[in-house]
Each structure stands twice: as C-alpha cells, then as structure tokens.
Amino acid sequence: MALLAIWRHLPTKTPAAKFLKVGICQWAIMSAVHWGLFARRNFVFGRPFATAVVTPLSNKSEAYPTQVLQVDITVPRPWRVWAGQHVFLSIPGLGIFTGLRGHPFVIAWWDRDRSGLTISILVTSKNGFTRELSRNANKTFRAFIDGPFGIPHDFGAYGTVIMIATGIGHEDAVRPWIVKPWMDKILTQDTGMVSLHVPESGKQDEELGTHSKIKVTSTPPDIEGLLRKEIGGGRRGDIIVSLCADNAIADRARTQ
After folding, report:
1. What are 206-240's pLDDT values in tens digits?
2. CA distance 45 to 88
3. How far is the C-alpha of 76 from the C-alpha of 51, rounded, in Å?
4. What are the contacts of 101-107 at 24+ separation with CB within 8 A?
5. How far apart are CA 218 and CA 239, in angstroms?
6. Per residue in 119-177, pLDDT tens?
7. What torsion, rounded to 10 degrees, do the Cα atoms 109, 36, 91, 243 define?
8. What span, in angstroms and rounded, lies between the C-alpha atoms of 249 and 237?
9. Which residues contact 196 (CB under 8 A, 6 or more apart)?
C-alpha cells in the first residue's frame, strides 16, 4: 500500500520514479526467490510435510524460572546443516495468528540418517508462540520451515577461542558427555576449559568428570576477569570471542 501511494503521487519522468521502479523490481525478485526456496524446502512430491514433536525437558525451578522445551523437526528435504544456523518455524496447528507466523530459533543439534534429517531446537516457554508450545507438549504437529539462515564461522584460524553463552540447554547437553569414562583420556589431552554458572542459592561448586575440565559454580560469571585473564595470558595466535548471550552479558564482553 505504501509503494502504491508513493507511485501515485510521483511524476512518471522524475529520477525518484525511476529509483522507485528499481526498488519495486528488486523487492519482487527477492520475494519470488524467497517463496520459491520456501516451497522447495517444504513441498516434496511423494513425501509428507515436516512434523514437529514437542517434548518438555525441565520444569520451573530457581535456576530455570521458565519451562524448557525440545522441538524435534523432521524436514521433507534435507540439507547440510552447519553450526550456528537458524530457521523460522511455523506451526499452523497452534492457531492462525500465532502459528502461521515464522518464529526464529537456532538449531541446537541435528541427526541425519537414511530416513532423512531431523533438526532439534531448544525453546524457553514465555509468551505467545512458545507458551502455546508448552501447552501442547508431547504432541506432534505439521510444521513449515523457512531457512536455513546464517553463515558459519571457521574457528580453526584462531589460536584461542573464547565462547560465552547464556540461556537454556548447556548443562543438560554437557553433563552426559563429560561423565563418559572413554572421554577422560581424550579430555586430558585438551587445553580447553568449560565453566558453567548456575545462579542457584545453596548449591556447592562441583567438578564434573575426572578430568577437571568442567566446573559448575552457583555464582554469576565474572566476564571482565575472564577476558582479561585469557587475552593477557600470553596466548599464541589470534583470539576470537564468540557470543551467544543476553544483552547484559554481551555488553560487558564488548567493553573489554
């Protein structure tokens, strides 16, 4: 409507009208390509639509005041997934106004076998779409995927990689991995360290596994001290700081 109103009020032979035509053509081409890719991703002849299975992972607690959900999405047309990619998820079964809109989620992990590709996302139940997901836990829905989006970053070119993340999913994903006995030998050869900060009162600090590589503390993280220690510790090569955190933590990291 806005483009039509501008078009009607512009003289046809002015430079502004020419620029408007170019903009309209670019918008039309990009929209056609986008919806073409959307149709290719979701509509495959002879295969069912994508399905989303909602599974609750945790209940509300002091550490996690909101419910955490895992959504496993089986897609009809697989693609090569890269770490850091995200998709827009639509589930019409959750309601016309809520479910038809695309909601962005980062792909937490994925599984590809002969039967196809299944991507998994972690969701914090809050309002709107995520609240409807929590109300319909342990159910299967027809879903639509828009994406994937995001460009993977190669950390192999850096001598030191510092990853700072906040939110859901980290502890549940790390715990079963580090307690496996056959991982201890590999971890003793690794120079990396993982520090989990779970702000929950009354908890004692603990180390997971037998390799002293992962430590869980109940105090908030000292972002400034961590970065000063790592950057000023005589590390070799370039250093990269990767952030997947809330605004407060991200701002503290950027000021260093």
Report:
1. 666 655 667 777 777 778 887 887 777 666 778 88
2. 22
3. 9
4. 101/129, 102/144, 102/146, 103/129, 103/130, 105/71, 106/244, 107/81, 107/148
5. 28
6. 999 888 888 888 888 888 888 899 999 989 988 777 888 888 888 887 764 544 444 44
7. 40
8. 25
9. 170, 171, 174, 214, 215, 216, 217
**Are 140 and 168 in contact, with CB atoms under 8 Å apart?**
no
Boundaries of every domain in the chain: 50-149, 155-254
Minimum mean pLDDT range among 5-14, 72-81, 86-95: 5-14
Strand partners, 194: 214
* Burial of 205 (C-beta count, 10 Å sphere; 0-12/13-18/19+): exposed
Q: Are 216 and 196 in contact (CB under 8 A)?
A: yes
Q: Choose the CATH number for 50-149 among 2.40.30.110, 2.40.30.10, 3.40.630.30, 2.60.40.10.
A: 2.40.30.10
What predicted TM-score, i.e. pTM, was given to this entire model? 0.70
